[in-house]
């Protein structure tokens, strides 16, 4: 009795591939034949799945046994059906011959297992079965099935065969061609790739394991197994994120071994590594489970002490770390080492938001201070000083950006002859047109750039801008002398004279005679030999020089002789105070005497009232500058001011005193100032 073979897969597979999924188009219309064909398709897909996913455990014995069972059942069953309709037709004989060829091929494949690899035999079996499915089952069996169906409807054999051939010319032929094309494209390539799936999966697992190891190395120190900077940063950030619910502090302690480089150089890196491992173990024994110990690299560790109420609570830990670092470290052959450590400490939270990296930098800065203090100690980060430094750096950056964005402007304050009203020139004064704070005076930003390279940048900008203005006035036919303040840093900078020479060479001829450089008296005295040489060199270019704020320095005869300046500008504090303060008046008179003796011009700053001008005229000083004349103004206001400026009548018609009258006047003025300066009872 024939038994229908099982259609399910021989092996339960986690993965399977239906290289030929059963389709309704495969069906012939004869249920018994279609059921048997479905069994062959199932066997074919089972073999494909084994080849693709389980090639190393495939049992071709069982596969071929299943194919043998299918062949015996199918051929006998199918031949019985065909015999009823094609007993006398040549197609029956051809069909039997094809079945016989199938049996011979299957037998040959079984024999091939003795000499060929299982993979090769399985591949050959797949190719044979697929071509059998396409050429025999889908073509010949289908054609015979169509013939049987036509005969069952009453057609004679020849008419039924003609109708079956007509049916086969259309969709069925196309379907067969598609099946063969699919096999050639998929069977040889896809199955070979799928056959390596297990190897690929093993490689993936190896890759995942390698990645886990790499991730561990990326977050942990390879030598000590402690968290490295990456993981430390993550953990501290997590603590910061959760700190809103806590009122306690976090202590960040930067620990560095003193003189560790000597150990590596003397004993070698192996001993150095051992020291680091021992130190890591000692630190870990000191801290609690909730605390964090991290090695940044080299001999640098960071310890994070969590949930402390104040800094004093942290002190015992700091002492323990210093003690642990100083404990004897045993080496081989009875040798020992003794070290020390320096600690830098900072706390969180602070008055402003801060990142883990900023906390680490603060602790590092404190560590540097501990090293400077002699090592083997700790130092706490100074937040107030840090704020001052950061504010200063921030201000410098704002000034740099302001210069880059052209936010600075020059205002000009006139210098005049008090008696005649003649305009002697203008002093260029820098202002900062701040986008948020409005117009800023020099005192609000120049002290920030003192002894900083930005002072040179600002000074060069002022000089270039003033020269541009001189050229504009020259072009208009009404040039004025413009005086520019030059700080000591700029004047003494290397190459100042050459830079000025190059700048003047690029401009109109004669521009130098309208440029006056003002040097603070205190700056000139810093290196009088150098300053004197620079002034001599610049004067050779046609530039004039004046001493600004004269009287605030030494005002000695020797340096006046060595500095070839054209003008002395009397400091405004003496001018403003001369009406009430006899000492200011005495200094003013002395400066005027020096100027006359050395044949220098004089400009008195700080003339704020008519009385100041009148007193200066009485003392023989006619050059002046101050609010009583004009405040500093933008360049577009100068033409209108110059056109409307008139010297006050009390100045214009002030009589010129003789030398005898001047001496008497000075004596009386001093007595009057002394009298007014006495406190009232």
From TrEMBL:
Residues 392-646 form the EAL domain. GO terms for molecular function: cyclic-guanylate-specific phosphodiesterase activity; metal ion binding. PROSITE patterns: EAL (PS50883), GGDEF (PS50887). Residues 248-383 form the GGDEF domain. It holds the Pfam family EAL. The keyword Heme does not apply. It comes from the Bacteria. SMART domains: EAL, GGDEF. Keywords: Iron, Metal-binding. The keyword Iron applies. Belongs to the hemerythrin family. PANTHER family: CYCLIC DI-GMP PHOSPHODIESTERASE PDEF, SIGNALING PROTEIN YKOW. This is Phytochrome-like protein cph2. It comes from Ferrovum myxofaciens.
């Amino acid at each position: 009795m024939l038994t229908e073979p099982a259609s399910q897969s021989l092996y339960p597979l986690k993965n399977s591939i239906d290289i030929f999924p059963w389709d309704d188009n495969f069906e012939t219309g004869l249920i018994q034949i279609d059921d048997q064909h479905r069994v062959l398709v199932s066997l074919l897909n089972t073999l494909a799945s084994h080849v693709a996913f389980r090639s190393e455990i495939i049992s071709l014995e069982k596969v071929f046994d299943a194919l043998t069972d299918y062949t015996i059942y199918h051929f006998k069953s199918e031949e019985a059906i065909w015999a009823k309709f094609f007993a006398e037709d040549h197609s029956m004989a051809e069909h039997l011959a094809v079945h016989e060829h199938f049996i011979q091929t299957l037998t040959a494949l079984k024999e091939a297992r003795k000499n060929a690899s299982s993979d090769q035999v399985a591949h050959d079996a797949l190719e044979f079965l697929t071509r059998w499915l396409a050429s025999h089952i889908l073509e010949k069996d289908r054609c015979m099935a169509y013939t049987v169906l036509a005969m069952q409807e009453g057609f004679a054999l020849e008419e039924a065969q003609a109708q079956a051939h007509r049916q086969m010319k259309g969709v069925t032929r196309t379907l067969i061609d598609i099946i063969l094309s699919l096999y050639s494209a998929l069977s040889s390539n896809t199955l070979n790739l799928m056959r390596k799936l297990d190897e690929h999966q093993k490689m993936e697992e190896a890759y995942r394991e390698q990645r886990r190891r790499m991730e561990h190395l990326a977050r942990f120190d390879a030598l000590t197994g402690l968290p490295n900077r990456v993981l430390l940063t993550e953990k501290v950030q997590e603590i910061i994120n959760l700190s809103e619910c806590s009122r306690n502090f976090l202590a960040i302690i930067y620990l560095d071994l003193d003189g560790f480089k000597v150990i590596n150089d003397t004993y070698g890196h192996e001993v150095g590594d051992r020291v680091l491992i021992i130190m890591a173990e000692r630190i870990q024994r000191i801290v609690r489970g909730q605390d964090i110990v991290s090695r940044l690299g080299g001999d640098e560790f960071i310890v994070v002490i969590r949930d402390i109420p104040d800094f004093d609570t942290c002190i015992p830990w700091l002492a323990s770390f210093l003690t642990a670092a100083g404990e004897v470290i045993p080496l081989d052959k009875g040798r020992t080492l003794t070290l020390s450590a320096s600690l830098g400490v900072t706390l969180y939270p602070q008055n402003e938001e801060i990142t883990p990296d900023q906390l680490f930098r603060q602790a590092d800065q404190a560590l540097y201070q501990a090293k400077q203090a002699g090592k083997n100690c700790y130092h706490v980060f100074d937040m107030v000083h840090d704020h001052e430094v950061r504010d200063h750096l921030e201000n410098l950056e704002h000034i740099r950006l302001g210069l880059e964005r052209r936010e600075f402007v020059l205002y000009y304050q006139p210098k005049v002859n008090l008696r005649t009203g003649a305009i002697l020139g203008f002093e260029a004064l820098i202002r900062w047109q701040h986008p948020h704070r409005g117009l800023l005076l020099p005192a609000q930003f120049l002290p920030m750039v003192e002894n900083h390279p930005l002072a040179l940048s600002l000074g060069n900008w002022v000089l270039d801008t003033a020269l541009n203005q001189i050229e504009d006035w020259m072009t208009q036919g009404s040039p004025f002398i413009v005086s520019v303040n030059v700080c000591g840093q700029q004047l003494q900078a290397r190459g100042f004279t050459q830079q000025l020479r190059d700048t003047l060479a690029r401009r109109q001829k004669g521009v130098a005679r309208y440029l006056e450089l003002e040097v603070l008296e205190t700056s000139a005295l810093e290196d009088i030999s150098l300053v004197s040489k620079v002034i001599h060199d610049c004067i050779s270019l046609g530039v004039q020089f004046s001493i600004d704020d004269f009287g605030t320095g030494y005002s000695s005869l020797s340096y006046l002789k060595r500095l070839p300046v054209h003008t002395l500008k009397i400091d405004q504090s003496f001018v403003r105070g001369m009406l009430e303060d006899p000492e200011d008046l005495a200094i003013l008179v002395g400066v005027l005497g020096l100027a006359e003796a050395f044949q220098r011009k004089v400009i008195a700053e700080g003339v704020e009232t008519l009385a100041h001008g009148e007193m200066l005229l009485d003392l023989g000083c006619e050059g002046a500058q101050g609010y009583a004349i004009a405040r500093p103004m933008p360049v577009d206001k100068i033409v209108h001011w110059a056109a409307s400026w008139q010297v006050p009548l009390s100045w214009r018609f002030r009589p010129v005193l003789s030398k005898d009258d001047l001496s008497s006047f000075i004596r009386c003025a001093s007595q009057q100032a002394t009298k007014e300066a006495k406190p009232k009872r």
